[in-house]
């Protein structure tokens, strides 16, 4: 849950940073352009966001089912 939340929020923030920098934000060699690519990858490796959601849903629903 922490990984999903942190990486999704990082994506929102870096997207705003790129927007703030305008055209420079997407130019190769710019720090925000590099960070955008690096942060985008965080939502894929070590458990893609979609897969994380499935795992969380299964555990949440499973826990609920086993409850009183
Ligand atoms: C920068 C980077 C570094 C990496 N480093 C390593 C490393 O050191 N060691 C290592 O072993 N691997 C590494 N990987 C690989 C990484 O773990 C995989 O890319 C990741 O597990 C996703 O697998 P995939 O690329 O085959 O995409 P897929 O699994 O094919 O996923 C493609 C898309 O489909 C979605 N998806 C997949 N399954 C489902 C599902 N059941 N339901 C709904 N949506 C689904 C995903 O969320 C994603 O959007 C790295 C990847 C990157 C980008």
Concise structural overview:
With 68 residues, this protein is mainly alpha-helical. Helix content is 74%, strand content 0%. α1 packs antiparallel against α2.
Structure description:
With 68 residues, this protein is an all-alpha fold. The chain has a single domain (2-66), classed as Up-down Bundle (Butyryl-CoA Dehydrogenase, subunit A, domain 3), CATH 1.20.140.10. Helices cover 74% and strands 0% of the residues. The protein contains three helices and no strands. It has helices spanning 2-21, 31-42, 49-66. Helix 1 packs antiparallel against helix 2. The protein is elongated and about 50 Å long. The two termini are 24 Å apart. The mean pLDDT is 94. Residues 41, 44-45, 48-51, 54 line the site of flavin-adenine dinucleotide.
């Amino acid at each position: 849950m922490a990984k999903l939340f942190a990486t999704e929020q990082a994506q929102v923030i870096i997207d705003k940073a790129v927007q703030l920098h305008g055209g420079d934000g997407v130019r190769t060699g710019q720090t925000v352009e590099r960070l955008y690519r690096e942060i985008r990858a965080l939502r894929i490796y070590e458990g893609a966001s979609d897969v994380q959601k499935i795992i969380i849903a299964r555990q949440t629903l499973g826990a609920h089912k086993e409850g009183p």
